[in-house]
Amino acid sequence: MADEIDPAQASKFAHAVLTQNLRLRPGENVLIEGWTHTLPWAVALSRETRRLRAHPLILYEDEAAYWDSVDAREDRLLGATPAHEWAALGKTDVYLHLWGAGDKVRLAALPDRRVEALAAYNEPWYTAARKAGLRGARLEVGRPFPNLARLYRVREAEWRDQVVEASQVAPERLQRTGAPIAKALERGRRVRIRDDHGTDLTLGLAHRRVQLQAGRVTTEDRKTRYGVLCSLPSGAIQLALDETVADGTIVANRTDYHDGGIATGGVFRFEGGRLIDHSFDTGAEFFDTPFRTAGAGRDRPGLLRIGLNPALRNTPQLEDTEAGAITVSVGGNARLGGKNTAQLFGFVVNAGARMEVDGRPVALPSSSARDLTPP
Length: 375
Description:
single chain; alpha+beta; Thermophilic metalloprotease-like; 2 domains; 7-stranded antiparallel sheet; 19 strands; 26% strand
């Protein structure tokens, strides 16, 4: 893949991430986690780090070697927290995560218990990262991969280019766009979402904290367990909904992207604060299978998310970050300050709908990007 990536594009991307989003300072220590398919990006980030008079270190994992260990069932070793890596983490100021193993399709096919074992390091990692006081980012440029692009029916290079472009949207621009929307949602009691294609849904707001994600780690973020890392591309507002209020219908016009496949044509219908009917044109199993076992709260509204990034359009794994995209979920929202602890995140996304808060129109942004073309 190295010969497919334009060095000038990679350098520009690295400069934007390090200066705009992470505000790298001279003398800081930067740890970059790179894999086989993301090594060119890791190298570009390393080179730009030095240009900014800081100190890079690349933590490299080989894709084939990783899967060889998985095949050998060395799950406990792969999920361990080795002391030398944790020592490096303790001296890190800025951390860049390029999304681990590229073959997410193969990973999604493993039993849940094995996936949990392979990722057993995750919770201790966040404990160590908070102790180190680091700040960092998960870079979606590490997600495009050949078999995942085929599964999602997009061209890998176009997908990657769109992610790179969207990662360079300035945090200040996203903040300006999102601030009035966040203010309306913080103060309101009811939000209504409508379009001309069957969507008319009223949801409840409970004066809960509204998160505005603009691509920087904030002081408020640092108070939360997982807030030491932002995600890039960024640009979204999200909050936990009132779990008792939901009436009407939302019709999806964006794809739901999962590591194991896609769902399209989603429709949620609510009455009296409960999901009473749902359907999908394709991929219904990605909702129905976890829904059957999720338990109490699975049919209650979860979160509302408004996308802000104008350089995305129906982009895999970023469908909820596209400017003007409205995501409504059912199931758990406790992590955002809600009361629903159901082990489910089922969602649909509608881009381009109109929104009102307490009867007043709230202007939403729109995307300037093009649809990705099929392979």
